[in-house]
Amino acid sequence: MINFNVPPYVDTAMNYIRECVENQKICGDGAYTKKCSEWIEKRTGTAKCLLTTSCTHATELAALLADVKPGDEIIMPAYTFVSTADAFVLRGATPVFVDIRPDTMNIDEKLIEAAITEKTRAIVPVHYAGVACEMDAIMDIAKRHHLFVIEDAAQGMMASYKGKALGTIGDFGCFSFHETKNYSMGEGGALLIREEKDVEEAEIIREKGTNRSKFFRGQIDKYTWVNYGSSYLPSDMNAAYLYAQLEVADKINDARLACWNRYKENLTPLAESGKLTLPTVPEGCVHNAHMFYVKVKDIEERTRFIDYLKVNGVYSVFHYIPLHTAPAGLKFGRFHGEDKYTTKESERLARLPMYYGLTLEQVDYICGIVKKFFDEN
User: Fold this and answer.
1) DSSP of 236-278
2) Domains of the chain, start order
3) pTM summary value
4) 94-126 pLDDT, tens digit each
5) How many CB atoms lie within 10 A of CB 332?
6) pLDDT of the residue at 221
7) Secondary structure percentages of the chain, helix, strand, coil, to 5
8) DSSP state of 227
9) How many angstroms separate the CA atoms of 189 and 57, rounded?
């Protein structure tokens, strides 16, 4: 069986984890946490990167920094993971879902402005599959309406929009380092902060409402409770596991892109014959091969397709159930406008195996099974 996902691993990780244990520093904000944060800051150009225990917590932290309150409205796509909405629902806000573009599965930037009300606090674009949303248009709308932009870049590490790293364009950006992501620390994430003025408050909230970060930098002689907060610090052992991958980040990225390009090369004839649809990467977007998906005719064909692949030794999955159709989505949020594409396109999409360590020979085999499915159907 060819697995759908295998968590990334680099041999030096165990040495780094052992070092944490031997130095008796396994809690948060140790040497490897700092190394990871500095690497991300240098690579993306963000003012500050703070590692967190998850992308969920990074988004919660962003919601706190944006001072999201009960009664506020947050515009986002319904085609996303539950954490995108949960972070704001926890603050008492209402997710306002708008339709997606069928080409990228991202929020349709042309529909955002009509969903804005006097209660709107922020726009949350989700960069699906590491392919950027149309950020120029989104930032223009946010500026004119005085809204925060919080980028859900959970899948966007090493991807960019018009030369800018995803997660650095809006006020705040959120990365995921879950085991299913291109770079992983098991469970983990990061908050990217664009403006220096927001850094101190973010550090305080992340450190349980204390000014402990300033104490460790020697800026104060003792630390104390100064604001509300929570505990968003990951273990330094998790950061050590991640840092081993960041040291070879380009190697990992290149390997994934090679597999992505091989999928596209092999499956383009099927797309040209109208049997399936392949991912679209708009001009100005540099993706990171986070996933390779195909879209088939409808949900019935997708079910047969996934079952067929499994019988032939290939594990494939579909993705999100649109949030506005879920019980919690009906309870906490609302859909603005027409659901023209969100549900229909989500029911067509199937993800093929993609991970660091997948070989081109395995990709060729998978594509052969895909072709065989359409030959037999």
Assistant:
1) HHHHHHHHHHHTTHHHHHHHHHHHHHHHHHHHHHHHHTTS-B-
2) 12-246 (3.40.640.10), 249-376 (3.90.1150.10)
3) 0.96
4) 999 999 999 999 999 999 999 999 999 999 999
5) 18
6) 83
7) 40, 15, 40
8) S
9) 8
